[in-house]
C-alpha cells in the first residue's frame, strides 16, 4: 500500500453559506455530521470518515485545503520527511479539524493548501441513520442526488508540469492520463494514489488566478443516478453547466453544476473502470484529439475553460 | 503498493470445450486472444493483459489455476520468499503461459493451484479491435454480455479459516467481509489485495470435494448491463441459476449462470463501492443475519450451496 | 378512441391509516392532494387528475372501488347504457368523490365495485410543486420511489373467465395475455382499454374470499428506479415480498411490497412495450410454461398465491 | 379506437444502399425480413409487422413514404372517404408493398407521400429468431443498438400550421405539444393517433426544400440502452450529431446520428410517459422557452436546424 491511502476531504469556501449548505444537503444529498460557527462538516452516505467536505463561510469562494489520509502513522511520518526534504513550502503540523487527528500542511507552487493525516474518526451512524445492511457507513437515504462517496477534485495551475512534480514528490501520486498541448506544455494531468482512475486532476489556469479551484466531484453507483439527478437539479433551479455526457479522458460519465456560491460541482460515474496495472503507462491525449470534444462529441462549453473559484477580476 | 497488484487470470477446465468457448465469446462477450491445441485465451474488452481467462480442455470441470500479478519483479521475489518460508506446498517456477513471464506456483491446503508472476504481455488491439478512445484496451464491441474486466472468483474449502491464513500469508490479502457461523466456524471470507471490495472469496465446501470451484465473475459498468445480459442468457438457452439481485454481503448486484460444461459464472456490478480505508475492519455477518437472504430478501437457492465444479459423486 | 379512456383511480382500505399514508407519501413517493376525515387523495407526480389513489380508513384492508375515466360525456352515457343492459349488478349514479364529477357504479360478479366517470378536475400544481418543464403535471420531487403514474391493479376472482366477460361487456376491455390451466380454466387474464399492455389483471382466487384485491401498481420511467426503490424500501423496513425481477407474462420488470396495512403494492416498468396492433391476438400461456417461473427463472413465491386483502380466515 | 391505429412503417431513400443497410442491421440493430432488387425491409425486434422500415436505393436521400395502419377495414374505408373529401392531393390505391395489403396514398401540401392500409402480414419468426418468451415478436438478439420498436418520424414543412390541418383532417391525429413562435407561426407540432406521446412531428423547414425529412426514431426500453448505443456508434464511426440528452419538449431522452447516406436517425426513450387523457390540452412552448435549450440546458446544435434530407442546394 502506498504511504498515502486516499483523498480524505476537501474544504470549500462559500460566500453564501446557508444557500450552499442547503444545496449540499437537500439537493446534492450529503449528510451533515457536525456544524460549528464557521463550518459545516458533510459526507456522502458511504464515506467512512467524519466528513469528506468541509464547507466554510468566507468572503469568497474556492478551495481552502485538500486532505489525503495516510496508510499508517509510519507512512504519514515517512511522507512528511519527504515533503520537508522537497523544498516545497511547508506550513507544518496543525491540530486537525473535528473528525481527524493532527495533520501536516504544505503548499503546492500555486498556493493550494494540502494536508496529510492518519488518525481519523470513523462515522458512527446515529440510530436514525443506521443502514439495513451493515457494510455501508450510513443508510441509503435517497435524498437528492445521493452520491455514494467523495471521488476527486480538480485544481487550476499556471504550470501543470510543475504541479505534476509536486504531486509525485509530495503524495507519491501517479499520472494516469494527461493532455500534451502542441506548444509542449501539459494542458491537464490526472493523478491517483490508489486504484481509482484519479483522485485529483489539474488543468491549466486560463484566468490568471492563483490557488484556484475548478471542481469537486462525488461518485454515484450508476449512470442512471446522474440522469435522475439532472432532473432534481433542474427542478431545484440549480445551474447545470454541461452534461450529462461521457468524458473522452477517463471515460467518466459526468454532470457539472454550480452550487449557489458558484463553486463548480460534478457528479460522476466511472463504471467498473479501475487502474489495476502496477505499471500503468499514462494515456497521453494530443491537442487535436481534444478538439473532437467529449466522448460522444459534445463540445466543451466555454465557461468550463474560464470559470474557476474564486473568480478573478 | 502491495507486493501483489491484482488478480490476473483464472484457468478453468471444461469437458465441453467447443460449447464453453462459444458461450464465453458469443454470449458472455469475451474476446479470444489466442488458441492452441488445449486452451483458449480470453479477455474482457478492458482487461489490459493477454488474457484473464484460460479455458482448457479436460475430462472434467473446475479451476486449474489462479494467477495474481505482482507489483514489480522485486515484489514478486519478496513474495516468493515468504511463500517458501510459509510451509505451504510449493510447486515452484514454471515458464508461464502465453501472455506472461515465468510464474511461481504453490498450493493452498485444499488443492487449489495458485501462481504469481510479474512480466506480462499487454494486449495490443489489432486494427479491427482498436478503440475509438485510447484509454480502453480494446473497442467496446457490445457483443453478448460484454463485461468490462475480470472481477473475482470464489473457491470452496473445507476449512475457510485455514484458507484465510493461506491468503494472508501467501498473497498478503486482507479480509473485507466474512460470515461467522454459530458453531464458531467461518462460513465464508472475502479477500482483496487492492482497493476492490474483493478479488477472491472462499466459502465452505458442503460437497466433500477438494480443490473445488464455486464461480468466476466479470464486472459490468452498470446494473442495467446485467438486466440486459439476463435476456441474452435467456434467449441463448443458458441456465440462469439465480438473480439478478443484490448481495447482502458486499452489496454486489449479481446474476449467476452455468456455462455449458457446468462451471458457475457470475456477472456483477459493485457500483462505486471501493475499500479505500487502509485500516478497514472486516464486516462480520452472523448466521442469523445470513438467514434473511440476499439484500432485498431473495432466499439463496439450494444449488448455490451444493453445486461446485468438478462435481462430486 | 374507446368509450373508456383509462384507469383513473383506485380506492384502497387500510386499517392502519397513518402508517399507510406515511408509506405512500414519504416512502412510495406519491403526493397528497387533499385529505378529509376518512380518506387521503394521492397521486404520482405525472398523474394529471386530482388523485389516482384514494386511501380510506376502514376496519380492514382491500379495494373499495376501481374507477375508469370515459372518453367523453357521450361515451360515458353510451357505456352506462351497455352496463345497464348487461344484467351485471348496478349501484347507479353517485355524486363522485372530490376531484371528479358524477360516476356510475356497478359490480363485477365477485363483489368488486367499479365506477366510470367523465368530468374530472385536473391537478393544478401549487407554486411549490410547479414543474420546471410544463409538460409534466407536477415537479419531479424525487422523494422515495417517486413513480411517474398509476399503472394497473390486480383483482382476485373465483372464476376468471366470468370476470373476463364482465370486463369485455362493461368496459370494452380487450385481453392482451392470459393463462390457460390444464383443467381448462383461465388462471389469469390481463386487460387493457388503450395502448398500455394492461391496466387491470385478474387472477384466480385461491383464498375462498370474495371481492379481494391482489395488488396495485405504479409505473417508473426506468428499471433502475425500481432497483433504487428496493434499497429505499429496505432502509425503511418495508416488507419486500418478491423481486426485482422480470415477469414472463407481459415482460414487466417488477417489485412487490406490502404497505403497512398489508395491501400488496407493486412498482413496475414496461420499457417501450405497448399494444399498438388493433387486432392483437391474446398471448396464451399454458400451465407448464408458467411452471418455468418468471422470465429469468425466479420461482413465484408462495405468498403470491395466497396473500390477498382483506385476509380470509 | 381511432380509425388510424398507429404509425406502421416509413420508407427512406439512400444513395449509399449497402452502407445504409449495414448500418441499420449491424450497428442500429434492426432485422432484415426480406430484400428485393431495390429495397430492404427491416424491423425492430418487437415490431409485429413484416417491416417498419423500407430502405430503398435512390439517387438521393429523404423519405419516400409514410404509412399508418388503420384499425379495421371499415376504419380504413371511412378514413379514405374523409381524405377524398378533403381536397388534399390523392394518389389513390396501390397494391401495397411486400408485407401488407392494398394501401391508399395521398400527399400533404409539402410533397410528403402518406399511405394508410389495414391488411398486414404479421412477422413470423423463423426458428433462429424465435423468442424465449412468446409475447415478443422476435428474440431479443442484443445486436447493436437493438431498439424495441418504431417510434416516430419528423418531417419538415414550410408551414407547420397547414401541416397540422392536414394531419387532423387526414389521419385524425391530435396535437400533444407545439411551439408558438413570436411571429405567430407554429415552429413545430407533435402529433399522435393513439396513447403514445407522438408518432410524428413536424418542424419548420429552414432549408427551402419541399418534402424533406428531418429524422426517424426507434424506441429503446431504457435510457441506459441509449448510453450504451452511443458507445457502439462511436466505435463504429457513426456521426453522432447531438445527445444523449433529454428533450424539453415531450421529455424524451434522445441521441441523434446520421446514417451513412446522411439521413438523421434518432434513438429515444420516453420512460413511462403516455398521453392517457382523452381531452389532453396541447402544451404550447414559446420562443423564449425554447431558447433555454433542451431539458438540462444543452443548446440545440446548428445542424439540427439546417440539415434535412434530401439536401438542398
TrEMBL record, chains A, B, C, D:
Domain VOC: 6-119, 149-270
Enzyme class: oxidoreductase
Matching Gene3D superfamilies: 2,3-Dihydroxybiphenyl 1,2-Dioxygenase, domain 1
Key words of the record: Oxidoreductase
Entry EC no(s): 1.13.11.2
PANTHER family on file: GLYOXALASE_BLEOMYCIN RESISTANCE PROTEIN_DIOXYGENASE, LYASE, PUTATIVE-RELATED-RELATED
UniProt protein name: Metapyrocatechase XylE
Organism annotation: Planktomarina temperata RCA23
